[in-house]
Amino acid sequence: MSISTRSTIQQFATLSAGALIAAAFAAGAARAAEPTETELVDALNQLFGKHAGARASHAKGFCAKGAFVPSPEARTLARSNLFAAGSVPATVRFSIGGGNPAAPDKSRSVRGIAVRLADKSETHDLVLISEPVFFAATPASFLSFLKARVPNPETKKPDPARIEKHNQKFPEGKAQPAMLAGHAAPFSYATTPYFSNHAFKFTNAAGASKWARVELQPAAGTRHLTADEEKSLPDAFLEDEFKARVAGKPVEFGVFAHLQGPNDSLINPAEAWSKDSPRVRLGTLSIDRHDGQACDAEVYVPTNLASGIEASDDPVLKVRAAAYAISKGRRSN
After folding, report:
1. CA–CA separation, 149 vs 166, rounded Å?
2. Which of 115, 205, 209, 331 would you label with 242, given CA atoms 20 to 30 Å apart?
3. CATH no. for residue 327?
4. What is residue 127's three-state secondary structure?
5. Would you call 124 a catalytic residue per the annotation?
6. Is residue 27 in some structural domain?
């Protein structure tokens, strides 16, 4: 029996029967307060509507193909064969946040990239967005954030009072919207960085472990729309821009492990990590082909991990696989 387990038993042994009952009810209430994965998908459908064949979130997107070339430093961090090969095939999906498959490309919402690295022995999914923080720290915050933004039937707009009420209860919900409001939409999927928001433990062949979040940094640099481009470009331009760009030369991203700093949380995806903590280059993602909707049936799951990489106890990360499965089931019906 571990010391921590023994200590917990000793603490419960000192409680009266009434206190034990109260503690049990409190624990049950805490569990009940967390929404189910079905409720999370229901909330997405309520906010964005149900669209036949579309994902509940990141509904608008397209696919691409490429390869991941690991760097020499990658093996110092992770033992997976994916970080030892000369090149690993990559299937990629770019997307716009939210469940509207007709979302305008100029909207100030997150952009997403999902990457599947796969060889004959294992696969690894990267699921990242264009801001370094998520909009919720817990499933309860996630649900509240979405419900607060359901439009009023009369005004057809979200009620500011409901959003403010959410922010008072879950103040972390203000960080990502503030970041998105601080700049225009990306000029291209190839000119925005992407961030995992979640932490993962990387263990190398010697058994040494480090926690990190994953980042993709665009070789083309970061570029957002100018004021004139926001006005003049059509609502759908990102896919055509990407097709033209990749026809000229591959789109490349540096793939980095952003190592945990002393005060960086492993379980709060709504909290940014320290900018000055080290980054280890894992390799280069090179995308050389637009692939239409070829990957649309795929479900990219951030807990689908290669050997030597483990998920944290981040509560939002832990519900993603089941929520994605529910969404997949609904769009398949």
Report:
1. 10
2. 331
3. 2.40.180.10
4. strand
5. no
6. no
The catalytic position among 51, 58, 124, 183 is 58
Classify 30 as helix, strand or coil: helix
pLDDT in tens, the chain (333 residues): 433 333 333 443 444 444 434 443 443 444 457 899 999 999 999 999 999 999 999 999 999 999 999 999 999 999 999 998 789 999 999 999 999 999 999 999 999 999 999 998 899 999 999 999 999 999 999 999 999 999 998 898 999 999 999 999 999 999 999 999 999 999 999 999 999 999 999 999 999 999 999 999 999 999 999 999 999 999 999 999 999 999 999 999 999 999 999 999 999 999 999 999 999 999 999 999 999 999 999 999 999 999 999 999 999 999 999 999 999 999 877
Give me the number of domains the chain comprises: 1
**Do residues 196 and 126 make contact, with C-beta atoms less than 8 angstroms apart?**
yes
Amino acid at 48: F
Backbone angles phi, psi at 84, to 5 degrees: -115, -20
Look at strands 309-311 and 279-290 and give their pairing: unpaired
Half-sphere exposure at residue 287, Cβ-oriented, CA atoms within 13 angstroms: 31
Tokens linked to 179: 């970041």
Residue at 16 is within a domain = no
200 within some domain: yes
Alpha carbons 114 and 102: distance in angstroms, whole number: 19
